[in-house]
Design brief:
Keywords: Iron, Iron-sulfur, Lyase, Metal-binding. This protein is α/β, with parallel strands linked by helices and 575 residues long. Helix content is 34%, strand content 12%. It has a six-stranded mixed β-sheet. A four-stranded parallel β-sheet has the order 2-1-3-4, with helices on both faces. Strands 5-6 form a two-stranded antiparallel sheet. Bound molecules: FE2/S2 (inorganic) cluster (FES) and magnesium ion. The site of FE2/S2 (inorganic) cluster (FES) has 10 residues, from loops.
Length: 575
């Protein structure tokens, strides 16, 4: 039986209950907002971190949805306080939202630290907002629930189903090859994003919300509920009710997150052939919880976990289909033999208890363990002289002929050079070439933009080529596909071996052997690395300057070096 905390022990009571001049000030200012002391005194104060903005279509419903969370908090006997935070709209924020993930994480941690709150509901979902809000809340270690925005409706164009991102890349390649008319292209533009909510492919957004549920940080089944489904506001109110109980019972993330809960997240990541971005985010999230997670952990888990979620970009269906097929609880239930079912979750029950009664209603969308969508692993981590600290790829999303390939390098030193040259009819390139983009990593980007799915040169598109081996120190969108080797670490900008590649050097990849090598003698590579100088940082000023000075490399999660670990700062003085 959990010992229920007393009102006087609530963190917020330090602000509101003190019989001194400051306590007077806090109470009178709460009353200034129209509340009576009965509304807030002695009650759990729930922060609702709302990542709504006018320019985040994935979170458009959060402006109203927050009212459902508040309803739940009030029903539970708590006092809700909405705290807006940076929205990080994946499509609109430039140069990349990844530049700001750690800023949002800091904002969440500091919002919680400086205000009179006892626990938090985190409202996120669009790519970076999930890891960012979770990282900040884990570092603050107050009771927390993650409320996922939910995927948008299926895309529909001229009788065909189309998926966020994945089908854009696919149809763009066909348009470049001259196979799609302007009119059809406009129809796709109007039909691919039909409602509020996050991308409805298994891109970074759904990957992150599913693995956050697997970690035990969301209510059971929350991560697959479509944004427009009436179950979504009901789940939101349930988050409000549950967080109040969690505060009374002092259920903090440190009591939920263990090495084993992160192993559960790895299993889910692999079973859904999840976004490569999740590798960076999960390592960073684990770092905040004091759990050491390595690139090898992802590879080891991938070798034993079948890909059973048949969702684009690796499979056929979309998130709405997934939810109707049974959703996240059904998927986790099928994966039970691989999961640590006794791990605690924020529901107050174990992961296994959360899954009781979960059923699959469509065996093509959520496959049985013996009928995976592919015999190829969802994620592979490669090492070699070109990536001593590792790099990643999604073999299931690549053409099979490229999984073992040797070809000459065609090197681009930055994105602009690549964009200028790639469609030049005179570009000296064959389908066997290995396209390389460098200086696009955490420091070089800066912020490691999603440039890793380098475009196929137009002259090769016209010849029917749709995939080539591509290598970069960048990331790629979770909705992307192709033989793209990403996150090469250390990155070129800080002197990694990628900086030593010259046009025409032979590069060899063998995914089965998990190797990536530059076929140039080691002494030559060393000599080139010592003589190459990296371009100056784009800015030393402001946040970008701080980012480039403190961001860690991709294999370490790209957190700031001063935010890693479990040190919990002292509570603010109240004077
Ligand atoms: Fe927001 Fe994809 S753009 S989830
Ligand atoms: Mg994305």
């Amino acid at each position: 039986m959990v010992e229920r905390r007393k009102s006087k022990d609530l963190r917020s009571s330090r602000w509101f209950a003190a019989e001194d001049l400051r306590g007077f000030g806090h109470r009178s200012r709460a009353m200034q907002m129209g509340y009576d002391t009965d509304d807030f005194l002695g009650k759990p104060v729930v922060a609702i971190i709302n990542t709504w903005s006018d320019i985040n279509p994935c979170h458009a419903h959060f402006r109203n949805r927050v009212e459902h969370v508040k309803r739940g908090v009030l029903q539970g006997g708590g006092f809700p306080l909405e705290l807006p935070a940076m929205s990080l709209s994946e499509n609109f924020v430039k140069p990349t939202t990844m530049l700001y993930r750690n800023l949002l994480a800091m904002e969440v941690e500091e919002l919680l630290r400086c205000h009179p709150v006892d626990g938090v509901v985190l409202m996120g979902g669009c790519d970076k907002t999930t890891p960012a809000t979770v990282m900040g809340a884990v570092s603050m270690n107050l009771p927390m629930i993650f409320l996922p925005a939910g995927p948008m409706m299926r895309g529909h164009v001229n009788g065909k189903i189309v998926g966020s991102g994945s089908d854009v890349w696919k149809y763009w390649a066909e348009k470049e090859a001259g196979n799609i008319s302007e009119g059809d292209w406009r129809d796709i533009e109007a039909g691919i994003a039909r409602s509020h909510g996050t991308c409805m492919t298994m891109g970074t957004a759904s990957t992150m919300t599913l693995i956050t549920e697997a970690l035990g940080l969301s209510l059971p089944g929350a991560s697959s509920i479509p944004a427009g489904d009436s179950a979504h506001p009901r789940m939101s109110a349930a988050c409000g009710r549950r967080i109040v109980e969690m505060i009374w019972n002092d259920v903090t993330p440190s009591t939920i997150l263990t090495r084993r809960s992160f192993e559960n997240a790895l299993v889910v990541h692999n079973a859904i052939a999840g976004s490569t971005n999740a590798i960076i985010h999960l390592i960073a999230m684990a770092g905040r919880a004091g759990v050491s997670l390595t690139m090898d952990d992802f590879d080891i888990s991938a070798r034993t976990t079948p890909v059973i979620a048949n969702l684009r970009p690796s499979g056929a269906w979309l998130m709405e289909d997934f939810h109707i097929a049974g959703g996240t609880r059904a998927l986790l239930n099928v994966l039970s033999p691989f999961l640590h079912l006794d791990e605690k979750t924020i529901s107050g029950r174990t992961l296994g208890e959360n899954l009781v009664g979960a059923k699959v209603f469509d065996n093509d969308v959520i496959r049985p363990l013996d009928k995976p969508i592919s015999s190829i692993v969802g994620t592979a981590v490669l090492f070699g002289n070109l990536a001593p600290n590792g790099c990643v790829m999604k073999p299931a999303a690549a053409e099979a002929r490229l999984l073992r390939h040797t070809g000459p390098a065609l090197v681009f030193d930055n994105y602009d050079d690549m964009a200028k040259a790639i469609n030049d009819p005179d570009l000296d390139v064959t389908p066997d070439h290995v396209l390389i983009l460098r200086n696009a990593g955490p420091v070089g980007g800066p912020g490691m933009p999603e440039w890793g799915m380098l475009p196929i040169p137009r002259k090769l598109l016209h010849k029917g080529v749709r995939d080539m081996l591509r290598i970069s120190d960048a990331r790629m969108s979770g909705t992307s596909y192709g033989a793209c080797i990403l996150h090469v670490s250390p990155e070129a900008h800080v002197g990694g071996p990628l900086s030593a590649v010259r046009n025409g050097d032979l590069i060899s990849v063998d995914v089965e052997a998990r190797s990536l090598n530059l076929l140039v003698p080691d002494v030559v590579i060393a000599e080139r690395m010592s003589s190459s100088s990296s371009p100056p940082p784009s800015s030393s000023r402001g946040f970008a300057g701080m980012f480039t000075r403190h961001v860690t490399q991709a294999h370490l999660g790209c957190d700031f070096d001063f935010l890693e670990g479990v040190e919990i700062l002292p509570e603010p003085e109240i004077h």
